[in-house]
Amino acid sequence: MEDSGLRRKAGVPMEFTDDQTWFTILLTIHVFSAIVGLGPSFAFAVLGPFASKNPEYALGIVRAMIRIENIFVAPAGWVVQWLSGLLLILNRSSIRSNFFKEEWLIVSIGLYILVIGISIVNYKATHQMEEMMASGQAGTPEFGAVAKKTATFGQSMTLMTVIIILLMVWKPLSECAGALLRC
Asked: N or C: where does the chain have the smaller number of CB atoms within 10 Å of the terminal CB?
């Protein structure tokens, strides 16, 4: 098969499937959206406990966390990640044809779906927590239950995200193992 760079120079349109240029573009989008979408959420694991130990700053911290989630985490994690991941799969015929043999990818997608589901539930709980704090209910048992729920959800999402990252980088049990830019 002719090199896609030579075909573009000759005026032949660029194909999507198995084209290295498309793959590199999509991988870059996928990785950067992971950094933008997931990076700030790792800070929530520090900000949440800080807010609970410093009640005078708690409402501001929770509001900042909600704003960060609305601006960065939700759009990148809920939209760009799954779309760029799907396009990466469609770009590689070797992955498409052996999709159900790529255990690392199946597990990653399953964990990602769980993270998104938990994230949606946690998003609602975080907003409920912010409303309770704003109305002076921060010390109530109901508030404590919501705060515990968000902390548990946050910890589980962080663990699953780390597992997804490890699977995406190393691709265990795959012919692509460790070949981030080749497969």
From this structure: N
Tokens representing residue 27 in the block: 């991988």
Radius of gyration for the chain, computed over Cα atoms and rounded to the nearest angstrom: 20
Closest CA to 45 of 172, 174, 177, 161: 161
Left, alpha or beta for 13 (phi > 0: left; psi -120 to 50: alpha)? beta
User: Which region holds residue 125: left if phi is over 0, alpha if psi is between -120 and 50, else beta?
Assistant: alpha
Q: Which residue has the tokens 């912010």?
A: 130
Could you read off the pLDDT of 136-150 as tens digits, one per residue? 999 899 999 999 999
Could you give the CA distance from residue 3 to residue 17 in angstroms, rounded to a whole number?
13
Largest CA distance in the chain: 70
Given a contact cutoff of 8 angstroms between Cβ atoms, the answer to whether 122 and 154 are in contact is yes
Angle at which helix 103-134 crosses helix 81-91, to 10 degrees, equals 170
pLDDT of residue 174: 73
Whole-number pLDDT of residue 38: 85
Closest CA to 38 of 163, 123, 158, 170: 158
Task: Please check the confidence at residue 160 and state whether its pLDDT lies above 90.
Answer: yes
Domain ranges of the chain: 16-170
Query: For 174, which DSSP code?
Result: S
Res. 1: pLDDT tops 50: no
